[in-house]
Amino acid sequence: MNRAYLLQRGTRYVMRDIIDVIFMRLQDVELKLGEESESDIEDADIDSNMDSGYGVSCVVDIFYFLCSLLNVVEVVEVERVSSHENIQIFGLVLINSAIELSWDAIGKHPKLLRIIQDDLFHHLIHYGKSSSPLMLSMICSTVLNIYHFLRRFIRVQLEAFFEFVLLKAAAMGSSSQLQEVAVEEIKNFCRQPTFIAEMYVNYDCDPICQNIFEQIGKLLCKLSFLGSSLLSFVQIQAFEGLQIIIHNIADNVDKEDYSCPSEPYPVQIT
Predict the structure, then answer these.
(1) Deepest of 24, 42, 121, 130, by most Cβ within 10 A of its Cβ?
(2) Where do the Mon2/Sec7/BIG1-like HUS domain residues begin and end (predicted)?
(3) pTM to 2 decimals?
(4) What is the pLDDT of residues 43-101, one digit of tens each?
(5) What contacts 62, CB < 8 A, 6 or more positions away?
(6) What mean pLDDT is predicted for residues 124-138?
(7) Could you give the CA distance from residue 123 to residue 127 in angstroms, rounded to a whole number?
(8) What ranges make up the beta strands (E) of 181-248?
């Protein structure tokens, strides 16, 4: 274990601690004049008269830096692919930590929310389409965290992620390891209490959106009955996914209160 490795590991621990401290306190940070604007141009004059290096502006700069770690491939083109992925995974670890610790506070700060909607999802979808199994797992974990805390703000982004990344990775043409990861991540999404209802209401019932819930169901059914005499791990995963969906629907039906049908699981169409 050389000094360079020890220095790198120590530096990453420090960065993780800094991110934890900053984003843990984001819920206590109040918006000031000009920070509610989503445009950098609109509040340029206001920021010139403020201590823009502190408060939300500082958090925005830090989070933007974390997202830029995912784009390291274009910066270090001569290095090995493994080094690229190593930096990207570390960036995703920090982003996941920031989202988990800030809970839904990011949704109260338009600039942070815009970074997630635009920059972060652009990188997640771009690199998710041609990633390794480990990288895809980390990307899906990040999207699941964003969905858990900020689902009201990522309707278009979530649709694009399923259509261009997750469903394609789980299709027959993918490698076996990548396919297993993709199907497992679909199961993780389906385990969320309101995911099935939200997918159906927000996408399948909208004529201008893709039928995400229908595509998930068709894919799991297709993978469950591959026609092979030997039962594969992907088939078992697909069966479990269908079982999770059916149980999810059945549980919500059992909880339905006819005197107030929207009470058990209110679904907000975003």
Answers:
(1) 121
(2) 56-212
(3) 0.84
(4) 444 444 444 556 888 999 999 999 999 987 654 444 444 578 899 999 999 999 999 99
(5) 19, 22
(6) 93
(7) 6
(8) none
Locate 226 and state its tokens: 């591959």
130 CB burial (10 A radius; 0-12, 13-18, 19+): exposed
For the record, the structure tokens of 29 come out as: 């940070």
- How does 227-260 read in b/e, with b if 16+ C-beta sit within 10 Å? eeeeeeebbebbbbbbebbeebeeeeeeeeeeee
Query: Are 141 and 26 members of one domain?
Result: yes
pLDDT at site 79 = 44
Which domain range does residue 145 map to? 1-153
pLDDT at 39 over 60: no
- The SS3 call for residue 184 is helix
Query: Tens of pLDDT along 217-247?
Result: 999 999 998 776 678 899 999 999 999 999 9
Tokens of residue 239, six digits? 């069966």
In order of 121, 163, 197, the CA distances from 103 in angstroms are: 18, 26, 22
Please say which residue of 118, 153, 188 terminates a domain.
153
pLDDT given at position 251: 87
Q: What's the structural domain count of the chain?
A: 2
Q: Nearest to residue 222, comparing CAs of 211, 234, 210? A: 234
